[in-house]
């Protein structure tokens, strides 16, 4: 193993956590990602935020909430991060984009995922949803890109 500039060992790593489908589990998911990456990792803040969004979606919008469970998987190195949440699925369509107003307190999770993740997607099979995203350090300095869909703002290059 090599030393990482972010306070972690440099080999590729995987962590998996099985969580109860309640709101407290979202905080545990954030802590796992934060601990795995280390606060100095350049992808830390965005990965913690996006983990919170997809874990919350599992608890609120799938059968994983209210007594169910979901699984968080984190794969990472000093150069990249891939995070996935597998939930118990639901009878509803997997992703319903809905318009939000400036006063809404929710409904922006997938917009954040679209704006911040370098790649993301979902797989729906065998009654489960697996929502994942990837981020790469070498793409952080990329030029601003216009978001897809009906979003009105530009992504800011970091």
TrEMBL record:
Would I find Ribosomal protein among this entry's keywords?
Answer: no
> Gene3D superfamilies attached here?
Histidine kinase-like ATPase, C-terminal domain
Which source organism does the UniProt entry give? Sphaerisporangium krabiense
Location of the Histidine kinase/HSP90-like ATPase domain: 21-133
Q: Name one Pfam family in it.
A: HATPase_c_2
GO molecular function, one example? protein serine/threonine kinase activity
Name this polypeptide is given: Anti-sigma regulatory factor (Ser/Thr protein kinase)
Keyword Signal in record: no
User: Which InterPro entries did the record assign?
Assistant: Anti-sigma-factor_SerPK (IPR050267), HATPase_C_sf (IPR036890), HATPase_dom (IPR003594)
Keyword entries, A-Z: Kinase, Serine/threonine-protein kinase, Transferase
């Amino acid at each position: 193993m090599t030393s990482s500039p972010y306070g972690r060992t440099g080999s590729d790593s995987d962590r998996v956590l099985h969580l109860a489908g309640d709101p407290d589990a979202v905080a545990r998911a954030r802590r796992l990602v934060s601990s795995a990456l280390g606060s100095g990792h350049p992808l830390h803040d965005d990965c913690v935020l996006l983990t919170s969004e997809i874990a919350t979606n599992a608890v609120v919008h799938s059968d994983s909430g209210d007594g169910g469970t979901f699984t968080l998987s984190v794969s990472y190195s000093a150069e990249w991060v891939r995070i996935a949440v597998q939930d118990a699925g639901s009878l509803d369509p997997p992703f319903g984009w809905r318009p939000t107003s400036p006063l809404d307190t929710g409904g922006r999770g997938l917009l954040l995922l679209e704006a911040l993740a370098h790649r993301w997607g979902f797989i729906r099979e065998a009654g489960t949803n697996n929502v994942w995203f990837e981020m790469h350090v070498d793409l952080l300095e990329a030029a601003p890109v216009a978001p897809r869909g009906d979003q009105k703002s530009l992504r800011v290059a970091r």
